[in-house]
Backbone:
């Protein structure tokens, strides 16, 4: 059986505000449509996409690039930003709004990684999409 891989990449304009969650979700939906994962798999991927782009916007000056690669059973999401600081899980504070995005990404993903480079960092999450 041939393994298909579908990918989409969006790069923001230099000096711009970065990519929006809506742009990234639209790109993710287009890639996922061809692989036809379950509704739960799509929801998990879109949640991870939203949290990663939102975190880049709130904490790192905006997403500079977004890439999604889908293969049967897995989806890899990569978000680049201008910050060198890696994401970290916030202490649990139920009465405080926010602060749970990276925790959620790590709960939904089977693997996460952070690669720091000259222009900032790239955060990668691999999600099951069955």
Residues:
């Amino acid at each position: 059986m041939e393994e298909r891989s579908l990918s989409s990449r969006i790069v923001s304009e230099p000096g711009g505000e970065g990519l929006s969650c809506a742009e990234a979700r639209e790109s993710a939906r287009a890639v996922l449509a061809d692989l036809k994962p379950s509704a739960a798999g799509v929801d998990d991927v879109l949640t991870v996409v939203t949290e990663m782009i939102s975190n880049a916007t709130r904490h790192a000056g905006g997403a500079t690039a977004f890439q999604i690669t889908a293969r049967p059973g897995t989806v890899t999401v990569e978000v680049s930003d201008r910050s060198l600081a890696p994401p970290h899980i916030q202490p649990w504070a139920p009465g405080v709004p926010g602060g749970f995005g990276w925790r959620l990404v790590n709960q939904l993903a089977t693997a996460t990684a952070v690669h720091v480079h000259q222009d900032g960092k790239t955060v990668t999450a691999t999600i099951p999409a069955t």
